[in-house]
Write a structure and sequence with these properties.
Helix content is about 45%, strand content about 15%. The protein is an alpha/beta fold. The chain folds into 2 domains: about 60 residues, no CATH class; about 200 residues, Rossmann fold, CATH 3.40.50.150. Strand 1, helix 7 and strand 2 form a beta-alpha-beta unit.
Length: about 280
């Protein structure tokens, strides 16, 4: 099926003319979402925390509508039923399946996972609790509040002894040096779409390979999204600015990872055609 063209990253970053009908449309949508839309818990959380934050991702994963009054719950249900939200939930399952399969190759030997921008990381907990009794994880994030929430989830799941938590910036080489070297698997899902400079991702992948040197790398790439302009023009990111996501061909990011030393890409697309989930090996 032919995909409709969507604006590129540069175009999304440029403001629309004030007299443009498209500008008026997106301003109106933004106004509705930031007023009546806040009756929905999901939309309120998105504007308060950023629609690119781990907090809203966790809410979308849970997929249970909440809101003030009946109308708020109805708006929330419509929000959670958006194609982008469905894709988020689909790739969560794909990521779980890929991690399980990779750990299954270890034949129940001890394994160490590092999630570089973990958010709540409940999909990691589900893997640890289902068939990976000798696996441990280090969850890192730049948001202390997110890590506290994640720690509570781990403890309630009976995983307090198998999961460690650490504030850390995935893109900072000095922060990378604090990670125990040679983990079995590094996870970087949801990270590359909010990094807008290509060179920064390429540099990070080289540093990840030389400093951390994981046995494998799991990441995702947002390749296409028909709602990308609505998200950029009407929603806010964690810093309060436009929520502009960077679409890239999966092959482009895979090529950068191969240049850094990773190989053998396994690629799974979500059923909505938005995300590619990629597992690559490091034969060292």
């Amino acid at each position: 099926m032919r995909r409709n063209a969507v604006p590129g990253f540069v175009e999304l970053n440029a403001p629309l003319p004030w007299y443009s009908p498209k500008n008026c449309y997106f301003k109106f949508i933004s106004f509705l979402l930031q007023t009546a839309g806040r009756l929905s818990d999901g939309i309120r959380i998105g504007y308060d925390s950023g629609f690119d934050s781990g907090i809203i991702m966790n809410y979308i994963y849970e997929n249970v509508p909440h809101g003030r009054l009946y109308i708020g719950k109805a708006i929330d249900g419509a929000f959670l039923n958006q194609t982008t939200c469905k894709a988020f939930r689909a790739i969560k399952q794909i990521q779980k399946d890929m991690i399980k399969r990779y750990l299954g190759e270890k034949n129940e030997k001890p394994a160490f996972i590092v999630d570089m921008a973990s958010g709540k990381a409940d999909y990691v907990y589900e893997v640890l609790n289902n068939g990976s009794p000798r696996a441990k994880a280090l969850l890192r994030d730049i948001n202390e509040k997110t890590l506290r929430e994640s720690r509570r989830t781990a403890e309630s799941s009976g995983l307090g002894e198998r999961v460690a938590f650490e504030l850390g910036d995935a893109l900072d080489p000095e922060s990378l040096r604090k990670i125990p070297k040679n983990p079995d698997l590094v996870i970087e899902v949801g990270l590359y779409g909010i990094i807008h400079e290509d060179e920064r991702i390429k540099k990070h992948l080289r540093e990840l390979r030389t400093i951390v040197n994981p046995g494998a790398l799991l990441f995702n790439v947002q390749t296409y999204n028909a709602q990308i302009e609505l998200i950029a023009r009407a929603l806010k990111n964690q810093d309060g600015g436009p929520c502009v996501w960077h679409l890239r061909p999966a092959e482009q990011v895979i090529g950068w990872a191969e240049e850094a030393g990773f190989s053998d890409p396994e690629i799974t697309m979500d059923p909505h055609g938005i995300y590619a989930v990629v597992l690559m090996r490091n034969h060292k």
